[in-house]
From TrEMBL:
This is SDR family oxidoreductase. PANTHER family: 5-KETO-D-GLUCONATE 5-REDUCTASE, ALCOHOL DEHYDROGENASE, PUTATIVE (AFU_ORTHOLOGUE AFUA_3G03445)-RELATED. Pfam families: adh_short_C2. Keywords: Oxidoreductase. It comes from Tsuneonella litorea. It comes from the Bacteria. SUPFAM superfamilies: NAD(P)-binding Rossmann-fold domains. Belongs to the short-chain dehydrogenases/reductases (SDR) family.
Length: 242
C-alpha cells in the first residue's frame, strides 16, 4: 500500500487489514508509518512499514524486498501515492508538471511493474489496484497536470490488465471523487471549497471508509472477473454535466 502515511492510503491499509490482509505500508514518512503499523497491530492485524519514494525505482525495489522477507510475494499491490498539482495550464511550470507526472504516473508504473514482475517470477496470481481520480475521467479548470496524470493512470491500468491477465494478475483502477485529506485540506476549508461542496450532487465529501468496500472487492476473489475496470466512488460527481 503506497501513500499509506495519510489520507486514503491510511484508511485503506486499516480497512484491508480488517478484511484479513497482511499489510506493508509504504511512504516517505517513517514515523507516520510506524504509528499506522502499531494501530493495525493493536487491532489484531499484521503489518510492517517500508519507507520508499515511489518515484525512485531502487527505493521501490527495496520496499518489495522488505515486504517479501516479511510476508512472501506481494499479491495485492495498491498504487495510491499521489500529489496534487493545482495551477492553470498557462502558469504550470515544467518543474511542477514533472513532479506531478513523476509521482502520479511514474510512481504507479514503478510500483505496478515491480509488483507484477515479482508475481510473475513467483508464479503467484494477484490484484493490482491503481488509485486514479474522477479527474482522470473528466476535467476541471486549473488542474491540467493532475488531470493528465490521472487520465494516464486509467489508460495504464487498462494496458496493464491486458498484458498481465495471462499471468492471473488483475489490474483495476479506483476513481475517487472528493474525500477530505491532506491533499485538499486547505481548499475544502476555504469558502470556495465549501461552496463547491454544495454544488456537488452528494452535497458532501466522501468518508474515507467509503473507499474500503470497493477496494476490498477489487482485491479479493469477490472481484475475480473484474479486470481493466475503473470503479468510480464519487457520489455521482462525474455524472454532472455543469
Ligand atoms: P494525501 O496527501 O493524504 O496522501 C498521499 C500519500 O502519498 C501520502 O502518504 C504521501 O506521503 C504519499 N506520497 C506522495 N508522494 C510520494 C512519493 N513520491 N513516494 C511515496 N509516497 C508518496 O492524499 P490522499 O487524498 O490520501 O491521496 C491518495 C491518492 O488518492 C492520490 O493518488 C490522490 O491523487 C488520490 N485521490 C484523492 C482524492 C481526494 O479527494 N482526497 C480524490 C481523487 C484521487
Amino acid at each position: 500500500m503506497t501513500g499509506a502515511s495519510s489520507g486514503i492510503g491510511w484508511a485503506l491499509a486499516k480497512g484491508l487489514s480488517a478484511a484479513g490482509a497482511r499489510i506493508v505500508v509504504v511512504a516517505r514518512r517513517s514515523e507516520r508509518l510506524e504509528l499506522l503499523v502499531r494501530e493495525i497491530e493493536e487491532s489484531g492485524g499484521a503489518a510492517i512499514a517500508a519507507k520508499a519514494d515511489v518515484t525512485e525505482i531502487d527505493s521501490v525495489e527495496q520496499a518489495f524486498d522488505e515486504a517479501e522477507a516479511a510476508f512472501g510475494t506481494v499479491d495485492i499491490a495498491i498504487c495510491n501515492a499521489g500529489i496534487s498539482g493545482v495551477s492553470n495550464f498557462l502558469k504550470t511550470d515544467a518543474a511542477e508538471r514533472d513532479a506531478v507526472f513523476d509521482t502520479n504516473l511514474r510512481g504507479v508504473w514503478n510500483v505496478g511493474q515491480s509488483a507484477a514482475r515479482r508475481m510473475v517470477a513467483a508464479g503467484v496470481p494477484g490484484s493490482i489496484i491503481n488509485v486514479a481520480s474522477v479527474l482522470g475521467l473528466g476535467a476541471q479548470p486549473g488542474v491540467a497536470s493532475y488531470c493528465a496524470s490521472k487520465g494516464a493512470v486509467i489508460q495504464l491500468t487498462r494496458s496493464m490488465a491486458l498484458d498481465l491477465t495471462r499471468y492471473g494478475i488483475r489490474v483495476n483502477a479506483v476513481a475517487p471523487g472528493w474525500f477530505k485529506t491532506e491533499i485538499n485540506d486547505d481548499y475544502f476549508a476555504s469558502e470556495a471549497g465549501k461552496e463547491y461542496i454544495q454544488r456537488m450532487p452528494s452535497r458532501r465529501l466522501g468518508q474515507l471508509d467509503e473507499l474500503v468496500g470497493p477496494v476490498v472487492l477489487l482485491a479479493s476473489e469477490a472481484g475475480s472477473f473484474m479486470n481493466g475496470s475503473v470503479v468510480v466512488v464519487d457520489g455521482a460527481l462525474n455524472t454532472l454535466v455543469a
